[in-house]
Write a structure and sequence with these properties.
alpha+beta, seven-stranded mixed sheet, 11 helices, Monooxygenase, about 30% strand, globular, 20 strands
Length: about 375
């Protein structure tokens, strides 16, 4: 009886081995349940598994993100402390990463290395290098530090977003390669900006440009305002949606042409037929929850699909809890009420970039001057759809 059982088990094992070595449909189905990092390791087993893994990777085009709020129990920022673990669980191959952290916890605090006990800022080359090592080689990582953070908790598109004007918080949005969507990062300072550079970045003379997310750092320095005008002037004449803000600093990509403390801008140019965008401006007159919800509801006119759509909130540090008579999370809650299945991310910064715009194939934008893209004490609420 024991020999018969052993034979039956052996026969079943041989059948399973045959299926897993020869039947691509079964292997491919199984691999859809495997996180990307494990999938890349599995791809080295044999040719069949490699081909199946590649096909699975091509179908994984759903946006994902990791969010964290502190205080961190480790030496590094709360986002950095969980990112390594969470990246192991994602079901996509990141091609572009947009990370934001609060500038107080990321650059203002010092900590001790266990070995040397030497004081070192959390905004250190080691931290940035560790961040780069988490993602595939060639992945573009944009890291921004800003006075406040808006994030949706990890795990669910329908989770309620939270505003963090104080305390440790951050997020990392991971964009895969997507059909019909081209995401091109850009980084300019006073030495590298030129009409040619803007064209190479896809910001001018690009009929497929749909959305530009941009973040200006050290803008208060002498010459910063003129520099910002150089960027916004050509963009204001385009039919693209422009949204972003003035932030504290940028920790990735590293600077190569300008010294620390010089002003500059980083951003993402989103082009392609499957990209859609819309934004509304909550101006200084919007000062209660009902008015905030009514303004955000105007985004419904864009009729943007829910799938693969992100919300971005770029708010002034002067808004938030104090602006709404000590009511917390007013604008994030209003967005969630109107768009309950769309994750919201963003920042509280030192100035806002954007205006009321809806980008559709059949929508003609009126010309706007540069000044109308720059604001104070406002919030730019934006939807971006990526196919």
């Amino acid at each position: 009886m024991g020999e018969n059982q052993d034979f039956a088990v052996s026969l079943q094992d041989s059948k399973a081995a045959y299926v897993l070595s020869n039947v691509a449909e079964v292997v491919e189905r199984i691999l859809t349940f495997v996180p990307t990092k494990s999938l890349l390791r599995i791809a080295s087993v044999c040719r069949l598994w490699r081909n199946c893994a590649r096909r699975v990777l091509r179908t994984q085009q759903q946006l994902t993100w990791v969010s964290a709020c502190g205080p961190s129990n480790t030496e590094v920022h709360a986002l950095c402390s969980i990112l390594a673990e969470e990246v192991e669980k994602v079901f996509l191959l990141p091609n572009t990463v947009l990370a934001m952290v609060d500038c107080e916890a990321f650059t203002g605090q010092a900590y001790c290395y266990r070995e040397s006990k030497a004081k070192k800022s959390r905004h250190s080359p080691d931290t940035v290098e560790e961040l780069n090592l988490l993602f595939p080689k060639g992945c573009d990582i944009m890291g921004i530090a800003t006075p406040g953070i808006v994030l949706t908790p990890s795990g669910s598109c329908s989770g309620p977003p939270q505003e963090y004007q104080e305390g440790e918080a951050g997020f990392a949005i991971m964009f895969p390669t997507m059909e019909g969507v081209h995401i091109k990062p850009f980084h300019f300072c006073k030495k590298s900006i030129s009409p040619t550079a803007l064209k190479e970045a896809g910001l001018v003379d690009n009929p497929d440009l749909r959305v530009v997310l941009m973040f200006v750092y050290e803008a208060y320095k002498s010459g910063g305002a003129r520099f910002l005008t150089q960027i916004l002037e050509p963009l204001a004449k385009s039919k693209a949606l422009i949204a972003g803000g003035l932030v504290e600093s940028v920790f990735s990509p590293p600077r190569h042409c300008c010294s620390q403390g010089a002003y500059g801008v980083v951003g993402l140019a989103l082009s392609g037929p499957k990209v859609q965008g819309a934004s509304v401006l909550l101006d200084q007159d919007v000062s209660n929850p009902k008015a905030a919800e009514a303004t955000i509801r105007r985004l419904k006119a864009a009729k943007i699909p829910e799938r693969n759509t992100l919300g971005f909130m770029f708010a002034c540090v002067g808004r938030g809890q104090n602006y709404y008579n000590n009511q917390t999370n007013v604008e994030a809650d209003a967005f969630h009420k109107v768009f309950p299945n769309t994750p919201l991310f963003g920042l509280f910064g030192n100035g806002e970039i954007g205006c009321d715009r809806i980008i559709k194939d059949d929508y003609t934008l009126c010309d706007t001057d540069t000044d109308s893209l720059q604001h104070e004490y406002t919030t730019v609420m934006t939807l971006v759809h990526l196919g």
